[in-house]
């Protein structure tokens, strides 16, 4: 059974990927410092899969702790690196925290992974690398624009670091997966998005407002150059996204990659506005949502949705779930959280 390390494995996307990895027969080792999640997520993973992944509470900013971990795990067959801070607004206010947490930790993981024999590396990247896209839909060959936030910049820099390593070391294989907007939860409602404090992402704020935890949802601007004036994003179900990680990992393990560094967009190819997401929630929950339009937010891109051709043709992967599917699963997860 091949051992895969998943950093940030108790986070939103990480936990769903751990489930898919375990269901695909991999032995999973999770590294997480619990800075933006709780140990209850591990219980959810075990409950869904019937398997308990190994867990290490390690802060990847501590270089010595990272080195010590790899010394005792020389049989690692692959690494999926999620661990990073990811709130656009927070990164604008705390840039140095984002550069330390997102860049230093990546470097330490790469330094150690590259010493292993044939252990491929999957990097959790983002469509933010495209900045304010000049063309829609966004393909992998779309130009990388200047980052609109320190968070986006850390993803650009992270990809450059991995690309440089792959150029220097022909035996090192990596894939960067550029996500669009992951939402939803596992169909069991045993794991889902678990923001600590005030949610930074749209959907958990919607579901918390629907559940009465938040008084009102703020819609940041309705004067953008879109059909209803609100920002457009490509919302992808987190389980579809998680499955793509397993496919990408197997691609590298089986030596099917055409070059030792590849990038793929992961989205649905469909753009949805903030108001369309709100309407989807109202449909699946059968209740109105209390929301109010407020000022625009610094760092927000007007519209972004994926050209998914490359992922379909090369990875043979495509997103299966609809926006309503994802919103319903997110709402069921929120209701479970409220009940618990």
UniProtKB/TrEMBL annotation:
A GO BP annotation: galactose metabolic process
Annotated NAD(P)-binding domain residues: 6-326
CDD domains in the record: UDP_G4E_1_SDR_e
One CC-aspect GO term: cytosol
Assembly and binders: Homodimer.
Domain of life (superkingdom): Bacteria
Pathway it works in: Carbohydrate metabolism; galactose metabolism
Catalyses which reaction(s): UDP-alpha-D-glucose = UDP-alpha-D-galactose
Family per record: Belongs to the NAD(P)-dependent epimerase/dehydratase family.
Provenance organism: Bizionia paragorgiae
EC number, as in UniProt: 5.1.3.2
NCBIfam families xrefs: galE
Protein's name according to its UniProt entry: UDP-glucose 4-epimerase
């Amino acid at each position: 059974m091949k051992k895969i390390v998943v950093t940030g494995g108790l986070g939103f996307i990480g936990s769903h990927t751990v489930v898919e990895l375990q269901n695909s027969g991999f032995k999973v080792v999770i590294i997480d410092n619990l800075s933006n999640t709780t140990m209850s997520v591990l219980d959810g993973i075990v409950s869904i899969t019937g398997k308990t992944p190994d867990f290490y509470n390690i802060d990847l900013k501590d270089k010595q702790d990272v080195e010590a971990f790899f010394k005792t795990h020389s049989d690692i067959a692959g690494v999926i690196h999620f661990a990073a801070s990811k709130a656009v607004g927070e990164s604008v206010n705390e840039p140095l925290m984002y550069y330390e947490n997102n860049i230093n930790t990546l470097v330490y993981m790469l330094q150690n992974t590259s010493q292993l024999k044939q252990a491929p590396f999957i990097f959790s990247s983002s469509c933010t690398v495209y900045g304010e896209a000049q063309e829609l839909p966004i393909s992998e060959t779309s130009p990388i624009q200047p980052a609109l936030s320190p968070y986006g910049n850390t993803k650009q820099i992270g990809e450059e670091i991995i690309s440089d390593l792959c150029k220097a070391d022909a035996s090192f294989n990596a894939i960067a997966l550029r996500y669009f907007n992951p939402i939803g939860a596992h169909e069991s409602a045993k794991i889902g998005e678990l923001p600590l404090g005030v949610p930074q992402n749209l959907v958990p704020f919607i579901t918390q407002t629907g559940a009465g935890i938040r008084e009102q949802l703020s819609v940041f601007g309705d004067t953008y150059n879109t059909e209803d004036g609100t920002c457009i994003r490509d919302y992808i179900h987190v389980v579809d996204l998680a499955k793509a990680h397993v496919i990408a990992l197997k691609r590298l393990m089986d030596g099917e990659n055409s070059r030792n560094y590849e990038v793929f967009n992961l989205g649905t190819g469909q753009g949805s506005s903030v108001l369309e997401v709100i309407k989807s929630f109202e449909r699946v929950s059968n209740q109105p949502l209390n929301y109010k339009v407020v000022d625009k937010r610094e760092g927000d891109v007007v519209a972004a949705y994926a050209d998914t051709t490359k992922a379909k043709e090369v990875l043979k992967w495509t997103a299966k779930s609809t926006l309503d599917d994802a919103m319903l699963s997110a709402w069921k997860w929120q209701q479970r959280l409220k009940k618990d």
